[in-house]
Design goal:
Blueprint (H helix, E strand, L loop, with lengths): L1 E5 L4 H13 L4 E5 L2 E4 L5 H13 L3 E3 L2 H19 L8 H9 L3 H12 L3 H19 L4 H7 L5 H12 L3 H7 L11
Keywords: DNA-binding, Transcription, Transcription regulation
Protein name: AraC-type DNA-binding protein
InterPro entries: Homeodomain-like_sf, HTH_AraC, HTH_AraC-typ_CS
Length: 186
């Protein structure tokens, strides 16, 4: 049995959910971004307790099939951009179709219908947040950041960054951390 959770975007989110499950003595098989797989079905009372605890830390159980799929799309995009450099070398539409078992056109249309934006725009927002993170870390040049995130040039990255944030990457670097947005708010 699987439960789907909204707003899980990082490894710390997985650890937070794991802590809740252990506190509630709920045995589970696996926890990944946006999903908990249980050995056995949950009792209704346990599901309610879990839901309450998740809400306290900003997560939410998702029951609707469409919204579950949207959350899975988002989690795979976050994984694609933020957690696995090798994935960025693959085609996103092929990756999503393969991972989720649906044709990309269906996923794209559903995402636009439910979220009111396109997958492409969501990807751009995620990439810009990753650029912000890398700029703040100050370990890579803008050229290295552009290469890592699959931009064709520093100029293209800079133009997209300015379009989304209203700032140039160098101006952002000067004002730093205060302009970053939590991933679950994108």
């Amino acid at each position: 049995m699987k439960l789907y959770i909204k707003n899980m975007v990082c490894h710390r989110c997985v650890l937070a959910v794991e802590t809740i499950l252990n506190t509630l003595n709920l045995s589970y098989k696996t926890i990944t971004l946006g999903e908990i797989e249980f050995q056995n079905p949950l009792q209704d009372a346990d599901r309610v307790k879990l839901s309450e605890q998740l809400q306290l830390i900003g997560f939410e159980l998702i029951d609707d099939k469409k919204h579950q799929l949207i959350e899975r799309i988002k989690n795979h995009i976050v994984q694609f951009i933020h957690h696995d450099k090798e994935l960025l070398k693959t085609n996103l539409s092929d990756f999503l179709a393969s991972e989720l078992g649906y044709e990309y056109n269906y996923l794209s249309n559903l995402f636009s219908e439910v979220e009111g934006t396109t997958i492409e725009k969501y990807v751009i927002l995620q990439k810009i947040e990753k650029v912000k993170e890398l700029i703040v870390y100050d370990e890579l040049s803008l050229k290295e950041i552009a290469n890592q995130l699959g931009y064709s040039s520093v100029a293209y990255l800079s133009n997209q960054f300015k379009k989304v944030t209203g700032l140039t990457p160098s101006h952002f670097k000067s004002i730093g951390q205060q302009k970053r947005v939590p991933l679950d708010h994108l």
